[in-house]
Amino acid sequence: MDWREWAPLTLLTLAVLAGAALRFAGLRGAADLVWAGVTLVALLPAAWAVLRQLVRRQFGVDVIAVLALVGALLVREYLAGAVIAVMVATGRALEEYAQRRATRDLRALLERAPRQARRRTPGGGIEVVPLDRVAVSDRLLVGPGDVTPVDGILEDAATLDESVVTGESQLIQRSAGEQVASGVVNAGAAVGLRATRSAAQSTYAGIVRLAEEATARKAPMVRLADRYAAAFVPFTLVLAGAAWLWSGQFVRAVAVLVVATPCPLLLATPIAIVSGLSRVARRGVLVRDGGSLELLGRARTLLVDKTGTLTAGRPRAAETVVAPGGDRDEVLRLAASVEQLSPHVLAAALVRQARERGLPLAEPTEVTEEPGRGVTGRVDGRLVKVGQLAGEPPQWAMSARERAEIAGRSTVWVSDERGPLGAILLEDPVRPDARRTVRRLREAGLTRLVMLTGDRPRTAEQVAQAVGVDEALAQCSPEGKVARVRQESARAVTVMVGDGVNDAPALAAAHVGVAMGATGATASADVADAVLTVDRLDRLADAVEIARYARRIAVQSATVGMGLAVAAMLVAAAGRLPPVGGAFLQEGIDVLVILNALRALGGGLRRRDVPPATRALLDRYAGEHTGVRDVLAGLRDTADLVATRPDAPQCLPALRATHRRLTGEVLPHESAEERELYPALAGPLGSAEATSTMSRGHLEIRRLVDRIGAHLAQAGAGPLRRDQVPDLLAALYGLDAVLRLHLAQEEEDYFTLSPAAPGEGDRR
């Protein structure tokens, strides 16, 4: 805490107490002199501030405090003036503290910004280089306790402390191949890191620039008090004048001004708003100032970018389609091996997927990359190309392309010297917490939610339906986003959420711009009013709920306090309350206001807290979903094989292998969830009945797996009988649909309850 902020208040309080001591000692003249000095010391800066406001054509409630101080001096009510001076100084000190607290977390980030990095040299050594010399693809070493200098991919498993950036206190375990944002602390042994962004483009750099700007501009906090000034100040002056004219006693006018001193307004707003700023910062949301938080609490419209905001922003391999007789895992292994040296986002998705499946990647040679067309390299002696498909595609490839277009997925082709080997269908999955967040935002008071995206209408409509927004605007350019933001802002207070460089103009145009800073959106973070430093969209709902609660407490405190002040003003106008008594009565009102405003330190959040033991279960079962989805991919391939070539020699062995994985991996996972996870969720969800529909899903999954096993028992040594195929296909495709829906529901409704759970892109 900076002592200079509280020095004026401390000195004035000590002076008032010194005057009281002199008064009790019988030195009334000396006491009055001290109190008059205190009044004058408070009057001069307050009068100068009011004059500057009037020059700027601003009009606030501070004018009442100035008139009360002047009146106290004129009628020689020096103690009353001194008490008013202390109250005004208290309001100023709290307001300064609120502004400083608003940027404290930003300054903490700024102070911890790395200045250099340890880079591996070609000869196997380590050199320390300035951060601006780190380039994409450089291999770095992050020592124990070091801050990761740039965004990159881990070369080793790591234990990370992400609390400074995300607000989460728990240590996070990350495996080799996972993407790590700059700014997190290595809490374990030294690990290797391959840079995917330069220092200037990394996540931490954008947050640091936000901190520098927020701490440099020191904008005054927007106060609710000034909104009441237009009505309250004229009312006060008219009442004081009427009391003076009616009674002929100027002291009555002074008494009215004393109890009208707007300390409930000056105190309630800073305390409630700073409490809100502190709480949202602890949840990984950095808000620039109290004015932005207040606007967030009044927002009615939300415009949100799709990619990286409602979706994970990191493509994943959703399906692998191979040529007849091909091996799905081998196609993915070849593609990932070639793409290991490419910085492209699609390359990272392929490598990550292959490593999650435990595929042994080979070191490629003769690697060349042609922007826009793909990467070519030699893997285990084979020349492999990953990217676009050259020439006329075979029939199976045309079917794969059509399947990708219908599903709104991107296609990466894998070929060798003889032709295409397979296609990897990539998708940008919807965040599991997106739909829950949209529901919470509506409950918090947002009445209109619009999704903006540059993507195709079909894909945009699918995402819009999945998350439940009111409208989706597809193929939207950056200029179009700005125009839509301005259009919505003309109707109501509007929030814009985005993560990309092209979102920055729209964020700047909104009343409140919110950047997904955890994904490296440096340009967006530079212009935003708030930054989500944790890659979880549900923290936006937390911020809105906290902002609305803090603002409601501030308004409530100010309203009740001013209501009591108005009642006291009427008593003072009737001559029943002298200035000194009014000053102390106002002090009592202030105490009530402060106690009520402190309620903003807690409450307001709609979601339930999850016990640590239940969090651990959620994280464990969320991690197991990666293996279940791998089984799902094989299930779909097997179903396609049964549908197209039931008589093929490899059909029955593939079906048996899939059934073994279903009974050996999926069913034990579902049984363990039923036995351990679902009972633990009864508390956070409100009742044991909340998981009953998911339990019914477990029964259906087991029934379909048993049905497939029964067909295998009937087939014996094989092959499959023709009359078995229709019912077997119904079971296979039905199990695929039920299991996919079941996993999605668990991730949306349950796994998002854990603050430590990674995002969609990490789990699938």
What does this structure look like?
This protein is of the alpha+beta class and 764 residues long. Among the domains are: 115-146 and 152-196, Calcium-transporting ATPase, cytoplasmic transduction domain A, CATH 2.70.150.10; 316-427, Calcium-transporting ATPase, cytoplasmic domain N (3-Layer(aba) Sandwich), CATH 3.40.1110.10; 612-763, Four Helix Bundle (Hemerythrin (Met), subunit A) (Up-down Bundle). It contains 28 helices and 22 strands. The strands form four sheets. A seven-stranded mixed sheet has the order 10-22-21-20-11-18-19, with helices on both faces. A six-stranded antiparallel sheet has the order 2-1-3-9-4-7, with no helix packed on it. Strand 18 (448-452), helix 17 and strand 19 (471-473) form a beta-alpha-beta unit. Helix 5 packs across helix 7 (203-217), helix 9 runs parallel beside helix 22 (579-597) and helix 10 packs antiparallel against helix 21 (538-573). It is elongated and about 110 Å long. The model is unreliable at 214-222 and 757-764 (pLDDT under 50).
Helix and strand layout, with pairings?
Elements: H1 3-24, H2 28-55, H3 62-74, H4 78-102, H5 104-111, E1 116-120, E2 126-130, E3 139-142, E4 152-154, E5 158-161, H6 163-166, E6 172-174, E7 179-180, E8 185-186, E9 191-195, H7 203-217, H8 225-247, H9 250-260, H10 263-282, E10 285-287, H11 290-298, E11 301-305, H12 306-310, E12 316-322, H13 328-339, H14 345-356, E13 365-370, E14 374-379, E15 382-387, H15 395-407, E16 410-416, E17 419-427, H16 434-444, E18 448-452, H17 457-467, E19 471-473, H18 478-489, E20 494-498, H19 504-509, E21 512-515, H20 522-527, E22 530-532, H21 538-573, H22 579-597, H23 612-644, H24 651-680, H25 682-685, H26 692-715, H27 725-749, H28 760-763
Parallel strand pairs: 11-18, 11-20, 18-19, 20-21, 21-22
Antiparallel strand pairs: 1-2, 1-3, 3-9, 4-7, 4-9, 5-6, 5-8, 10-22, 12-17, 13-14, 14-15, 15-16, 16-17
Helix pairs in contact: 1-2, 1-4, 2-3, 2-4, 3-4, 3-9, 4-10, 4-22, 5-7, 8-9, 8-21, 9-21, 9-22, 10-21, 10-22, 11-21, 13-14, 16-21, 21-22, 23-24, 23-27, 24-26, 26-27
Domain P-type ATPase A: 113-212
Protein name: Heavy metal-(Cd/Co/Hg/Pb/Zn)-translocating P-type ATPase
Subcellular location: Cell membrane
